[in-house]
């Protein structure tokens, strides 16, 4: 099952490369020309593009998820990644996570990687 993913600006480029090798459609904030955009705008862009956003900004995106749900807004999913993980460990966790769900199951889901 292939996902449409959007990597927040602080996610290492090697993570995107790994996810592309796994046949996921990956777009980075740099490729979308959206660096230094607010978290709210990043989530809105990801939702519009039907992409799961992967981010290290755990507190901010957890709060945004709660606000969106309270307002009845939907997104394609949010994956929160703790800081301090090596790229290798992050890639492994993301691959395992994405292989366990379909994009439909991931809709409006907030998950920790």
The gist of it:
The protein is α/β, with parallel strands linked by helices and 113 residues long. It has helices at 13-21, 39-48, 58-70, 87-99, 103-106; strands at residues 4-7, 25-28, 52-55, 78-80, 110-112. It starts with a strand and ends with a strand.
Helices and strands in order:
Blueprint: E1 4-7, H1 13-21, E2 25-28, H2 39-48, E3 52-55, H3 58-70, E4 78-80, H4 87-99, H5 103-106, E5 110-112
Parallel strand pairs: 1-2, 1-3, 3-4, 4-5
Structure description:
The chain is 43% helix and 16% strand. It is an alpha/beta fold. It has one domain: Rossmann fold, CATH 3.40.50. It has a five-stranded parallel β-sheet, sandwiched between helices. Helix 1 (13-21) packs parallel to helix 4 (87-99). It is globular, with a radius of gyration of 13 Å. The two termini are 18 Å apart.
